[in-house]
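Notebook entry, structure prediction.
Reason for the run: the old model in the group folder had no record of what sequence produced it. Starting over properly, with the input documented here first.
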Amino acid sequence: MSNESKPKKSLVLNAFVEMCSGHQSPGLWRHPEDESWRFNEVSHWVELAKLLEDAKFHGIFIADVLGGYDVYRNSLDPAKISGAQWPVNEPFAVVAAMAAATKSIGFGVTASTTYEQPYHFARRLSTVDHLTKGRLGWNIVTSYLDSAAKNLGYTEQPKHDDRYAQAEEYVKVVYKLLESSWRDDAVKLDREKGIYTQPDLVRPINHRGKYFSVPGPHICQPSPQRTPLILQAGTSRAGKRFAAQNAEAIFVSAHAPEVCARSIAEVREPARTAFARGPANIKVLALVTPILGRTEDEARAKLAEYRRYASHEGALALFGGWTGIDLSKYGEDEELRQVESNAVRSTVEGYARFAPGTSKWTRQTVAEHVAIGGNGPIFVGTPSQVADGLEVWVNEADVDGFNFAYALFPQSFKDIIELLLPELRRRGLFWDDYAVPGGTYRENFYQKPGQAGPLDEHIVSSYRWKAGVPPGEHVIPE
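New structure, fully documented this time:
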């Protein structure tokens, strides 16, 4: 089937933010129109939620890190000076305030499985899912910064595959607590009999595993979704297998659709063959940073202006944290595709392949490449040109939507709302309203009224203790 004859996808669109200044564009907090430095204010986040809900965004995807970016120059100072994701606040704290000011938009919040006990974390998930009326998503990560590990009881980051082995057990504990510990109808609120919760409808989970021992029961009653919408962003072999079983949405960041296409196929195929899931039920969201103008010249002038404020030291600090590579070890004019380090060469070759106009790749070139939009592409142009670029990703990478990063906060989102969304609607690529106004994150994500919990094919469904099932008849999966 040709791309022209395929039915149009109704795209899932999120704003991509973090509780810090600049996020993917370090240094842009210096721009006179930027307000990202207001991230400590509740009103800052409430205003964003209301703005995006009025525009019918699906969700606000909140990134997070637990440590500083200190690989570059073997120092935290470049991140401190440039504000490169430093300082950064805890994201769950502000979600209830955003939810209180809105009715339908979802909130995907990043939290690691490496450093917090699942019993404690499950309580936080249930609490926020209650307070948002079921509009919470959990972006599952295993963390990647040694600086975080050292502050949380480790001498260094646990090995990659060990982190994923722990994550596998972690999510099972969380599923047991959220889904198997209480029957759907355990809370009776029977004023005549004086029974708040029927005792035989709440049970321990008695989990004993390699990493965790959690008797339970869960301390919270079932929330509207019970398990929040599951998001995931791992691109390693272990991460992809984890996503194939658990993720409902996958966040990808790459500079070219063909790279994404391979990565997506490596999740969807095992989802189908190993876990009996419909591949189309795993939605893939790509990181992009649109820079829009009413004319192409206007858009390019904006980009040139933004580059004047971008911090190259901040960009190299982020690059060092993401890759583990300290580019300060190389000379300013040194061609990085010719250095001895295989890791440096392969990383920079990846950038060079998708920016063929750059003849020489130096530390400065990498900094310029990362300084606006981070590790994803920037789309610069008119609404029509940017929409064309998004359609290429939909058709060639098979993505289902986008996480829009900003250059300026909130102006980049205002530009998307004013200029890009009308063009996407004109092309039949974006909805006019929420599928389920006032519904849960999952109902609007899948556009299925009543789908508050994961789909029946998802592993979580086997954990759910449904109303009416006698205590002895539902077995908690191992």
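Summary: The first strand starts at residue 12 and ends at 18.
The old model has been moved to the deprecated folder.
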